[in-house]
From TrEMBL:
The modification 4-aspartylphosphate is found at D53. Keywords: ATP-binding, Nucleotide-binding, Phosphoprotein, Transcription, Transcription regulation, Two-component regulatory system. Transmembrane segments: none annotated. Residues 142-371 form the Sigma-54 factor interaction domain. InterPro entries: AAA+_ATPase (IPR003593), AAA_lid_NorR (IPR058031), CheY-like_superfamily (IPR011006), Homeodomain-like_sf (IPR009057), HTH_Fis (IPR002197), P-loop_NTPase (IPR027417), Sig_transdc_resp-reg_receiver (IPR001789), Sigma_54_int (IPR002078). Residues 4-120 form the Response regulatory domain. It comes from Tistrella bauzanensis. This is Sigma-54-dependent Fis family transcriptional regulator. CDD domains: AAA (cd00009), REC_NtrX-like (cd17550).
Length: 461
């Protein structure tokens, strides 16, 4: 999306000349002739930067006073001052008070464009650094080569370049935010902000102010103006995580904002126009929520233009080794500890697990192993080093604490217990696929099928 620049100058010719120059370079440009118009434009929609004349005839505030207002209300907004009556002292004062740079009139076009480009790039870099700090530890890659993940990637590649709204569904911890970030990063809005609201942790009295912002004093005496997330996401993507937790009254206001692409801040009267793509996510069945009267049907249809379903970890067991290695490298990088390798038996246990917490739970287990697994850091992590709770939902073979019962059985019975537990674990590992299980354990498919039937092990295929 093109950067939006506000030009503030009392001379008509200068305003129009600079605006046309910027538009020729692919920017969008707005103009204002005095302080009231300038601050009104900033309040209506925050620009990406401001070009501000110091001396403004007939204006309530001069350029330096407008700069002070902008720095106080919007400290990240770059402002470049220019003046035909500038001195070194004036330039130093402007930069000391928060301006990005100072240009003396008459200015050369190349000089102006260079300063504009640098100011916007520096502001963008600051936002990216702040975003990285906020989401430290959040992955933005869809790891794995399973059919389910390949299909998800394919759908994202098709929908991302469009402006269509997307509804991401899937169980908790499966990676819905990762999918949403991929949509944003592969879209035409990738250079603009990706703003997140977790609706599940917002109290009803806070959520509207977070979404739509508030005018000074609206949230309490002497409270400053608050920019809502819709404004912060202008030209980018707003991700509404766990959207089913939005209060019903707020849902109606979101419907209107999506329809009109504008809204009013709390305590305000002037509509704020924005260009925002909304991606929403939920782990609930919104059809059931609609029937129960907890979710608006019109909001559902506005959000569910393109549905994306993120599979549970049990549906993509093939990806567990890749995910485990990825999380190990990532955890090692964040902690400063050397990464450890996972033995084949440990990976088999991980693949056979139930994983109610999905990918998030696997990530936590790998981080625990990096820190807590015994033995030399160069040694492989074995099955017996895994957290005990992993064995609770897995076949007995992969739960080392239960192997002792075999020692009290005759050889023939012990062998049958071992075979049953071993094959249960392998069948679970391959999601009930007999052909793949047979290939791994080194048996003919028909022979394995007979063995499973004799041991009373059910399969899905």
């Amino acid at each position: 999306m093109p950067s939006d620049i506000l030009i503030v100058d009392d001379e008509d010719d200068i305003r129009h000349l600079v605006a046309e120059l910027l538009r020729d370079e692919g920017y969008t440009a707005r103009t204002a002739r005095n302080s009231d118009e300038a601050l009104g434009e900033v309040a209506a929609r925050l620009p990406d930067m401001v070009l501000l004349d110091i001396w403004l005839d007939g204006s309530r505030l001069d350029g330096m006073e407008i700069l002070a207002e902008i720095v106080r209300e919007h400290p990240g907004l770059p402002v470049v001052m220019f003046s035909g009556h500038g001195t070194i002292e004036t330039a130093v004062t402007a930069i000391r008070d928060g301006a990005y740079d100072f240009i003396e009139k008459p200015f050369k076009s190349d000089r102006l464009l260079l300063v504009v480009r640098n100011a916007i790039e520096q502001a963008k870099l600051r936002r990216e650094i702040a975003d990285l700090k906020k989401r430290a530890g959040i992955d933005a890659e869809l790891i794995g080569g399973s059919a389910a993940i390949r299909q998800l990637r394919h759908t994202i590649e098709r929908v991302a370049p469009t402006n269509s709204r997307v509804l991401v569904t899937g169980p908790a911890g499966a990676g819905k935010e990762v999918a949403a970030r991929r949509v944003h990063m592969q879209s035409k809005r990738a250079e603009a902000p990706f703003v997140v609201l977790n609706c599940a942790i917002m109290t009803p009295d806070r959520v509207e102010a977070e979404l739509f912002g508030a005018e000074p004093g609206a949230l309490g005496p002497e409270t400053p103006r608050k920019l809502g997330l819709f404004e912060q996401a202008h030209s980018g993507t707003l991700f509404l995580d766990e959207v089913s937790d939005l209060p019903l009254e707020t849902q109606g206001k979101v419907v209107r904002a999506l329809h009109e692409q504008r809204f009013t801040r709390l305590g305000g009267e002037r509509p704020i126009e924005v260009d925002v793509r909304v991606v929403a996510a939920t782990n609930r069945d919104l059809g059931t929520e609609i029937q129960a009267g907890r979710f608006r049907e019109d909001l559902f249809y506005r959000l569910n233009v393109v549905p994306l379903r993120v599979p549970s970890l049990k549906e993509r067991r093939d990806d567990i080794p890749d995910l485990a290695r990825h999380f190990m490298v990532r955890a090692a990088g964040l902690s400063g500890l050397p990464a450890r390798s996972l033995g084949a038996d440990a990976l088999a246990v991980l693949q056979a697990g139930e994983w109610p917490g999905n990918v998030r739970q696997l990530r936590n287990v790998i981080e625990w192993l990096l820190i807590m697994a015994p033995g030399d850091v160069q040694a492989e992590i074995r099955a017996e080093m895994l957290p005990p709770e992993l064995g609770a939902g897995a076949p007995a073979l992969v739960n080392p604490s239960e192997d002792g019962e075999i020692m009290g059985l005759p050889l023939r019975d012990a062998r049958e217990v071992f075979e049953r537990n071993y094959l249960k674990a392998q069948v679970a590992r391959f999601n009930g696929n007999v052909s793949r299980t047979a290939s791994f354990v080194g048996m003919e498919r028909s022979a394995l099928h007979r063995k499973l039937k004799s041991l009373g092990i059910n399969t899905s295929s």
